[in-house]
Amino acid sequence: MSSVAVLTQESFNEHRSGLLPEQVGGSSDAVDEDNLPTYKDAFPPLPEKAMSSEGPQEAGNAWTSKIRPLRSSIITQVFHVPLEERKYKDMNQFGEGDQAKVCVDIMQKTGAHLELSMAKDQGLSIMVSGKLDAVMKARKEIVSRLQTQASATVAIPKEHHRFVIGKNGEKLQELELKTATKIQIPRPDDPSNHIKISGTKEGLEKAKHEILLISAEQVENCAVEKVCSVQMFINWVPYLRTVKVNANNCDGHLCVIALGVDVSHAIFSFQKRNATTIAVEVKKSQHKYVIGPKGNTLQEILDRTGVSVEIPPPDSSSETVILRGEPDRLGQALTEVYAKANSYTVSSVSAPSWLHRFIIGKKGQNLAKITQQMPKVHIEFTEGEDKITLEGPTKDVQMVQSQIEAIVTDLVMLSLYYIRMDYAEISVDPKFHRHLIGKGGANINRIKDQHKVSVRIPPDNEKSNLIRIEGDPQGVQEAKKELLELASRMENERTKDMIIEQRFHRAIIGQKGEKIKEIRDKFPEVIINFPDPAQKSDIVQLRGPRTEVEKCTKFMQKMVAEMVENSHSVSVPIFKQFHKNIIGKGGANIKKIREETNTKIDLPAENSNSEMIVITGKKANCEAARNRILAIQKELANIMEVEVSIPSKLHNSLIGSKGRFVRSIMEECGGVHIHFPTEGSGIDAVTIRGPAEEVEKAKKQLLSLAEEKQTKSHTAELRAKPEYHKFLIGKGGGNIRKVRDSTGARIIFPTAEDKDQELITVIGTEEAVAEAQKELEALIKSLDNVVEDFMSVDPKHHRYFVARRGQVLRELAEEYGGVMVSFPRTGSQSEKVTLKGAKDCVEAAKKRMFEIVEDLDAQVTMECVIPQKFHRSIMGPKGARIQQITRDHNVQIKFPEREDLQESNGEIKEPADPAAPKKCDVIVLSGRKERCEAAVEALKALVPVTIEVEVPFELHRYIIGQKGSGIRKMMDEFEVNIQVPAPELQSDIISVTGLATHLDRAKEGLLERVKELQAEQEDRALRSFKLTITVDPKYHPKIIGRKGAIITQIRTEHDVNIQFPEKNDENQDQITITGYEQNAVAARDAIQAIVDELEEMISEDINLDSRVHARVIGARGKGIRKIMDEFKVDVRFPQSGAADPNLVTVTGLPEMVDEAIDHLLNLEEEYMADVVENESKMAYMKPSGTAAASSEEARGPSKGFVVREAPWTTSSEKAPDMSSSEDFPSFGAPVAAARASPWGPKRF
């Protein structure tokens, strides 16, 4: 191990200060040999080896007493994390990702500096620099967050756990830092003796070793005898101070090793006989100065005088200090106690609390100047108190006190003469204080920053109303005004409850709270609270200033009223077959109605039996949508609408329970729609809508039923199996109509929605009901009489009845009371068919089967020739049209297979008879002759027809639209195909193909579109008016404005397009304006007005010191933008490298330029004071090289440092050359061959 001593100027001066005055002085020409220091005095030798522990140590040599060892406060350590223990192993993200984020977080948290590098083995090397505690903390963080963790347990006796923890947990914290592990010790009430350790493998081993060492030490100490003695005498015994003693002070006992019990008693008796005690009074506040840091001062007094000083405990009010020792030394100890007590003093300076922040200065600058000169003085400012407390050495405190008093005097004088500081106090109820502060101090911080003042709001425990504001007089008054306004607003605050139906809450809040956010932005001072949805409450609470709450209430009431108005609902009954026409192709019709009427329209599902279309929105809009939907239905069918006057008091009885009565009338009369007015409206008119014949029937039934209700109405109920209902009703309602006509009673059967499917209701006069009930009961009774009958059916017709999984038989069973029909097995050639069921049902079913057989015998096959290219159009979407014809005419329709024009060998087939129709064009129909003929006519009506419409060729591309959207929309709307000729044909003819009924509408729509396009062309021609204005290019940026703000405003305001010249254009002064003529002229005038204003502007140059440019410009140009906006001028600073860096150009109106220049010069004067002050500080901190050189010349030539009895004077060696790298080698330089040296043998 090597040691290096460095002789510095400070250590040399310190050495010379220890010499006598006559030793320091001397002639400049010659040096007295006797006065020169010896070599050993100037360069004391380093100790060769440690002193023996057996003998007493020396008081210390010159090295230990004169030169204090210097240690760097910054240390550097390198930690290595192997690849297998790395937590983040992504090699592609080295220097970024989670690992980098963790390192940045560690640096911010600990204050240490981290540098990462990757080793060849992919291990991670981390260099940590910083103060020792920061490095240790960083090391712990690195191990826990960048290295994978392992865990282990170590078992030691439970009673040793407290020694691992140490006093206040210090030992445990030291262990964790030292080993970079986490150590978990079980709680005292936990019987476990296992200590859990988590960390790296290396750290685990270290921690286990340290814990086991602590436990082993305690095991050894258990064998030590504890001797009770009086501690106050033990430190006096010289013997105990010179012999190493291993002692533990626990529970007031002293554990002494290697001393017998007799020796301890002898020491105690000796000191008790010779010691004298005196008591003195010392102020309680000065006790800490007598004790010193960690009791060092008491120990120093004991070491120097041998007197023990006893200080009362801190929690005692006693001021008595006891000195115990030999009588002849008590005087010296007492002197030292008083000296230490009076070496520090506590003083205070009177200063108003509002001046404290000015005394401290910005970021503590003023205070830092004082504390740097007097670092031992502690200065304490207490908020709300008009004094400053000083604590420290007496002389230093007096100097600091005088400086602070001078600062206070200056500040008070400034506030009196220049009125630069002021304060104000306002009284505000403490309950409003937290509202003034705001969330996270937002409100009060904003007021402080805005008005440059200090605001003190008393804490809650003071229960004070006074709020103090300090700072610039204007800022104080503005802040006071704003705070009083806030307080007044809070005093004026009120809470209001609004009753809003819960169904509207979600609509008011909006999706993701968008709508309620708009309301809160509009009324920021009002707090709106909605109830929890689970509470089913309608109360919405508003809280805030009275006026704002009232405004918000009115706004929300208006919003709710609109929602109520928009929630009006109307149900429109539309025949099911017309729903698809209401929807339109691709939903075009329904979408158009929704958009134009601003309503919500819901149609029933396809598989639903409901015919109701529900319209929701404003009442007027709902009515408009309803009328449009009804108009579509009326246009599509022969629909008529009549109104019947029936007293409103009878409406409920006519509608019946859940609409049973009115529904039965609508079903019986071919599905007419009967609309009753809203309940409670008092309107008597009932609307009936449907086919003309059915409407008349429904009208008669309603009027007769109403008449019955007015005269005398009686109701009866009877029950029948649901399968009998259709037979009782009969085909087309024939059976039930006979009963009604003969009795005059009305019979209502249950619908599919009714729960009780067996209940039949009879309504009418008492006699009519009794007679109808009698007839129905007879019919039901006859249906319960089951019989079996037979009939003959030709086997060739059997297949028709059993085909399609017996669909015909199922229909017969449903229609005729559940009659069962059995056909013979296939292949038996038997004609016998069995029918089983109620007698009347069997007879009716038998009759119907004979009719079917007769139809089958009379069936013919007919051909309809339609070109194959039209087949798909005839079928309609998913075959809907052909299915409708099949149902309407009760025929079978079969379409041919598609024609294959080529044989397998690729040759084209030639038709045998060119005049004969192609097979692929022939559609075959089967059924009765008259029905087939009607179906053929219906098929031919579906063949598309083509017409031609003349449209100017230049409009074709507009009709087609972007990506065909325009023409596609027209085809969907009119259900036709529109063919536009190819561009190269230059033709004006557009072909429209579709059903004859649709072509007229399509043609009208197409011609209407042509008119719109021609109008747009004319408008486009008017908008293409161009106008040119000549403007000097230097004004172009001003016309454009910042980020195009000015030119965008002109374009928007006048609806024109303004084009500036490109960089390469010849005419750089030409600006082109395009739009309507009057708009273009107006835009030109607006630009000319800007140019005229710019031409009136002047430019002036001023000299502004370049050192203040940055401060004038401000962060991101904020400062200079504010100046330009305030004075309406343009300020240009010189670019870097300009000939005159101080030249600044100001452009604007003359009077504004003068004001802006004055403002800039004032700022320069203000900022230059700070610049000069900072430069003077830098001059003091870094003196120039010329100054240092001149001081050297003043001292004259140095003769070096001369000593006596140097090693080179006693031998033939010459003095070492200080400029020689061999005699004074540099660290790291190669060492020359060893040779004898006056410095002695080299130890490195």
Automatic annotation (TrEMBL):
Quote one Gene Ontology molecular function term. mRNA binding
Q: Where is the composition biased (Polar residues)?
A: 1-11, 1208-1223
Which InterPro entries does this one have?
A: KH_dom, KH_dom_type_1, KH_dom_type_1_sf, KH_Vigilin_N
Task: Give the K Homology domain ranges.
Answer: 148-216, 274-342, 343-409, 420-488, 492-561, 566-634, 638-707, 712-781, 785-854, 858-944, 945-1011, 1023-1092, 1096-1165
- Principal subcellular localization: cytoplasm
Keyword ATP-binding annotated: no
Repeat found in the keyword field: yes
GO BP terms: namely: cholesterol metabolic process; lipid transport
Which subcellular locations apply to this protein?
Cytoplasm; Nucleus
Chain coiled-coil ranges:
762-789
**Record Gene3D superfamilies:** K Homology domain, type 1
Keywords (alphabetical) are: Acetylation, Cholesterol metabolism, Coiled coil, Cytoplasm, HDL, Lipid metabolism, Lipid transport, Nucleus, Phosphoprotein, Repeat, RNA-binding, Steroid metabolism, Sterol metabolism, Transport
Its name, as the record gives it, is: Vigilin
